[in-house]
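Encode chain A's predicted structure.
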Amino acid sequence: MYDLLVKNLRVVRPNTEGVVQADVAISGGKIAAVAPDIAADQARQVFDGQNYLAFPGLVDAHMHTGIYNPLHEDAITESRAAAMGGVTTSLNYIRTGKYYLNKTGPYKTFFPEVLDASAGNYHVDYAYHIAPINYSHIDEMEYLVEKHGVTSFKIFMFYGNYGLHGNSNMQKDFLMTPDGEYYDYAHFEFIMRGLKRAADKFPEKAPHLCLGLHCETAEIMRAYTSIVQKEGKLKGLRAYSAARPPHSEGLAIFIASYLAHETDCANINLLHLTSAKAVDAAMMMATVFPHINFRREVTLAHLILDYDCECGLHAKVNPPIRSREDVEYLWEHMLAGNIDWVCSDHACCKAEFKTDAHEKDNVWLAKSGFGGSEFLLSGLYTEGKKRGLSLNRMAELLSWNPAQRFGLPSKGDIAVGYDADIVLVDPDTSFTVRSADSPSTQGYSVFEGHTFSAPVKATFLRGNLIYQNGEVIGKPEGQFLFRPY
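Encoded structure for chain A:
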């Protein structure tokens, strides 16, 4: 007897073409069979899929849980939002310093606190990418790989002179770094060398040991911020984009790529590319350094919003929302197969905290980041369908590719032996985005008022129904994912 049989589905799989009419049988949290007309009496429980499209559970490769709110609280509410969006695996960035746990110290003491705050609070499976901030953190990378299954690390290239929200002369206080330490290009180089040492020590894990980079250059940003502020001609998101110009992304990508070449750091993820200049730089570097295994990421917001969007300062984020021309350029490369995955970059920044209480229209005082994981599948489906993006390609971008990159071989497909992570959507209906419908505590959405197709009707995590028709179901049962394997 199967534990659960989900009948009457149109199954969407990555690395294939077309949609298959089938039922999905589940045992022990795994997919046991995918075939048409599996008899209902072979299962203890039957769920009618109503001829919905069935996608593999989404692997949201870029989230920030606990950045603006206590981690143990954010884990609950924002993973509920993720489940609403069809996300079954949440990959979160974490670091020492201000925000998150608001403390520094070795990861041997810091990361267990992160895990303690996470345990029993996530409604979806979860893992963490870690940013080595202090010099001593580089020496801990092998420990994190071996003892905690952390296979992905991050560099925030602009943190040398910038904080989360803009120019800063207090980076030492923000990052809580020891005296005599600098968060600079030399530190980035040594992080790459540290990852190379880990890959050499654990060759069986090496294919999944990777480094993600937020590519912006603080020096360019500092100069252009000063120019934009002195001129005073631009306001809002246009001003913020001009202050952190696209060529700052491009230059950072060049620097990061050369350092990867210099250090023989094999697996590089270029995160949240936003502009034509950033994508062109990424493509050039792949040609110049073919021995580097590059991956290119974009966010849903950068595929939908431009800097004239109605949501205004709620859409302040790093790197910035760009021009409509940049949005369409991202789509050109998406359709050409040059983008590897789409993520949310979800960071719940509550409405009362997002903008300055006294100067609500001042972009320089607004906080950076916003949520959106709850609309990840529907948003990509809506915009992608308009442009001819296939359903199978959507499954690759949202599930298969990030699962493969980050060492999650049981995630990302609807096939025998995989985790029974399945999301059902109704492609024949649409809905208007309302932040009030989201379980997130953010209180607004940058997609407010947009009409999206294919609302999520049900989300299954390892065969357990965790979301259905607007309601999150059951207690948090998400598991920490020790990677790889």
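The chain has a mean pLDDT of 96.
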